[in-house]
Specification:
about 375 residues, alpha/beta, Enolase-like, domain 1, TIM Barrel, 2 domains, 4-stranded antiparallel sheet, binds 2-succinylbenzoate, binds magnesium ion
């Protein structure tokens, strides 16, 4: 397949509710969308890099720069035999995994359409429905926290993940557990704790959490392994797993017992499948993380979550939790049983609302092959 044009767009979209983590608060998203044209088809990708380099080093601006200056022209010049060849095509560029994923995932979308198969099938998916959880941000008050949890349990979500940080942890979890003794709960610290907090973190064991996500440094395995030895609760790594080798190291060192796979964080579907398979072979369950995506990234997450080892509920939730109006049609819905149906139509299985995307666009740029540019 020859990519004929790569269209980049930045859209601005306010969140229905602000989302607060230990690293900051987001009220509105700046999102980079990729539109690939080939053989009369359009493939879509979404870059999950944030507005600030707080989750990872990348931002929407570094991704825009990398795609326009390096990755885009390289892709446009390449003969893309199969979407799985993208990592090789991008190999010379180190890092910038979210930028790479935005392009690679759009190529998978194109390929699925060209082959007339669902993206989930092309990726090797086996599930018809995926189990869904929610990620609840740090709330301004305990009252609002309990209200929010109540609302999401009523909506059917199978697992409630609570963002936590020093000062919003043990006491908060205590109150939640008191009210809901049996609900499946986890927490996510986004690297808010340090070695001096090990004893404090042991107190989390009393809450029977499914897992505690990324308690320590964003780039660490060693101290997570030290901590895991002292905790009954399973550690789940998010930020520190960048690729299959990281997954192998973390599993081998017993730094975690569960892995959160974010397709953007690992650089695209190819690497996400490698991480999935490596974990499956070692009996480590995975689940699909979220990055406050629009329907485009969300539809990619749904397809990925259909792989067999995505056995735990992911942070792939309904469109309406994030957006007043999503940019895809139909919007992503979660059933009362807390499940999303995996689309069977060719490609991602959701239409992009082109007029809405156009209206939300604040900048755009088209990239063609190197030779055509110069
Ligand atoms: O750590 O999982 C995370 C959102 C932005 C950055 C990091 C994370 C998150 C979430 C939200 O937890 C997941 C979602 O609902 O998209
Ligand atoms: Mg996380």
């Amino acid at each position: 397949m020859k990519i004929e044009a790569i269209q980049l767009r930045e859209i601005h979209l306010p969140l229905v509710h602000p989302f607060e983590t230990s690293f900051g608060r987001t009220t509105s998203r700046r999102i980079l969308l990729v539109e690939l044209k080939a053989e009369g088809l359009t493939g879509w990708g979404e870059c999950v890099a944030g507005e600030h380099p707080y989750f990872s080093e990348e931002t929407i601006d570094t991704a825009w720069q990398m795609i326009t200056a390096e990755l885009g022209p390289t892709l446009a010049a390449a003969d893309v035999e199969h979407a799985g060849k993208c990592p090789e095509i991008f190999r010379q560029v180190r890092g910038h995994r979210m930028a790479k994923a935005a392009l690679e995932n759009a190529v998978w979308d194109l390929e699925a359409q060209a082959k007339n198969v669902a993206l989930a099938d092309l990726l090797g998916g086996t599930r018809d429905v995926i189990p869904c959880g929610v990620s609840i941000g740090i709330q301004p008050s305990m009252e609002e926290q309990l209200e929010k949890i109540e609302e999401e349990i009523a909506a059917g979500y199978q697992r409630i993940k609570l963002k936590c940080k020093p000062g919003w942890d043990v006491q908060m979890l205590e109150q939640v557990r008191k009210r809901w003794p049996d609900v499946v709960l986890s927490c996510d610290a986004n690297s808010a704790y340090r070695i001096k907090d090990f004893d404090h973190l042991s107190a989390f064991d009393q809450f029977n959490l499914l897992m505690i996500e990324q308690p320590l440094w964003y780039d660490d395995f060693y101290f997570h392994s030290m901590l895991q030895k002292r905790l009954d609760t399973a550690i789940c790594l998010d930020e520190s797993i960048r690729n299959r080798r990281d997954a192998l190291a973390a599993i081998d060192m017993e730094s975690c017992r569960i892995i959160n796979i974010k397709v953007g964080r690992v650089g695209g579907f190819s690497e996400a499948i490698h991480v999935h398979n490596a974990a499956a072979e070692r009996g480590i369950p995975v689940w699909c993380g979220g990055m406050l995506e629009t329907g485009i990234g969300r539809s990619h997450n749904i397809a990925l979550s259909s792989l067999p080892n995505f056995s735990l509920p992911g942070d792939v939730s309904a469109s309406r939790r994030y957006w007043h109006e999503d940019i895809i049609e139909p919007a992503v819905e979660v059933s009362a049983a807390g499940e999303i149906i995996v689309p069977t139509a060719p490609g991602r299985g959701y239409e992009v609302k082109a007029d809405l995307v156009e209206k939300l666009t604040v900048r755009q740029e088209t990239i063609r092959a190197m030779e055509l540019v110069s």
